[in-house]
Design brief:
The complex is a heterodimer. Chain A is α/β, with parallel strands linked by helices. Chain A has 8 helices and 10 strands. Helix content of chain A is 39%, strand content 19%.
Chain lengths: 259, 405
Amino acid sequence: MYLGIDIGSSSSKAVILDARGKILAGEVINLGTGSKAGAEVVERALAAAGLRRDDVRYTVVTGYGRMKYAGADKQITEITCHGKGVVSLYPKARTVIDIGGQDAKCIRLDERGRVANFVMNDKCAAGTGRFLEVMARVLDCEIHALEELAERAKTTISISSTCTVFAESEVISQLSQGASREDVAYGAHKSIARRVVAMAERIGIMDQVVMTGGVSLNRGILRALREESGKRIYVPESPQTIGALGAAILARQNGSGSF
Amino acid sequence: MSETKLTAKALLNQMMTEHYQGAIAAKEKGQPVAWAASVSPQEIFEVFDIYLVYPENQGAAIGARRESQKLIEHAEGKGYSSDLCSYARVNFGYADIRHCEAENIPMPDLLICANNICTEIMKWYENLAKELKLPLIFFDCPYSLEMDQTENRVRYVADQFQDAIRQLEAFTGKPFDEEKFRKVQEISNENGRLWHSVIRLCQNKPSPLNGFDLFNYMATMVVNRGKEKGTELYKLMYDEFSAKIQSGQGPWKDREERFRVIWEGIACWPYLSDTFKTLKRYGINIVASSYFDGWGLTYEVGNLRSMAAAYDGLHLDRGIEFKVRQLVDWVRQYQCDGVIIHSNRSCKIMDFWNYEVQRQVEKITGKPVVIFDGDQTDPRAFSPAQFETRIQAFAETMEQYTTGS
């Protein structure tokens, strides 16, 4: 059996594959690096697959917490793992957009499914999941409730500040001037989408476009990304575990020597 | 007892110590000291026995020895914006405190600025001239969008050299010594040629030295371009590194060179060790950089226009077309697997061209180009973890290209 673990800044994911590459388990815990979630999510995945630790032949760890996880045979970056995971589900994918808690990245795949190029956000938090968290706090709602708010938006409010702290002040000022929470919520989604699309355009947005990562569960972001890029965006059934799936596929390749 | 021959590294350290101690001694005995922009026409000032020190060079040393933040914050406290170049902020901090543990320089009697490396530096030196109430000799080398240098531009810079000579005759009370000028030009050209021949040794596969060695050696090229002792070092470097090639040695003793890359931009001095270790971990060696190349000036001795063309023709003073061609040529000549671009918060000109250079170089060479965020001397603008992720993903991408898997 082959194990892929993805320890991000705000969640931990694990996927187990059998010797033939079939997915036996995929688990997510919404706690990231610095917590015990990395070890816990592995236990959960093993339990779900009815396996013991000894049954795992090879483990690959990825994500922001990859350096600190001791139990893996190899650590590989999120870039390669997301690329690998996406190609296994969408062989025609050429662009991957992954918005995580701490960073946003766009990956261009070549016709053989290899990473041809990638761009990541700079150290600024705009365009990442953290930006949405801050917006949810200002709008006094849970992060998953943001999309419901955004769906009821009547107009688009532009949030132009790239700095998350500035954007927070900008939103507070919009609200005090009478803007609705719904319109502001949608404005926040548009702001992320604009930022991510501008970044992706640096390497070119080619069909098919697949989005991964926890933020892709948010329909408001998807809608905004579609509008900004003019592209159809595919989202896998379990977008959060794609990095872990890619890690598991690479574990299987490394562990069985089948490249 | 027989005299032990110094290694290039030991000679480098000795020369840098001598340079900084020499500046303080010069000041004490009344020799005029000037603070100069890093690619100023030092030949002219050597003739007048003006001791040149380079705040950018000192800034790099202060950054590498992790003392820059203190001076930067002092400058910001005085009212200088955090958007200014961090070399300038380190220097403004130093000009006020006038002491640091890392490397001291004497206060100047004269300021020299050439804007062939940067346009912001004009304001930096103007500000120093006002703050310190000192004369400033300024060489205007306007940024050029043209691929070729025009005759007008070269004449414009050469005329400023003539004007500087007249100003210096008045400043020192000494007539200009043509013979000495020719001699300094000869030494400078010899050093420029030797420096280039050392850089070109990196074309060997594996390269006999790692790019971080050159970041260190560069310090002497900034301060000793017109001095005979520089010649001794560059000859020694050439011999030492050639011997390494002969014996098949690569850049590191304990790791093979797996990937060869161009480093575009200035080093992150406060994180020299982090960036060195991260690249080495993945077997990535810097074999070329426009930063190394900038100080190897050569021209026709005795020809002021030719010298002006060299100073006006620096890559930092040229448009994107020149930059792209240079990188594309190096990818081929140095057999590079990719390019790393430092998006340097301090450096406006480099940031201006980064994305477009990335796009064009990738398109022409088919090699991956990665950009990371950092700063030359401000330690607050760099994240080691983010750097590592980008570099590791860059290595994985180059690996795919190499192995095809």
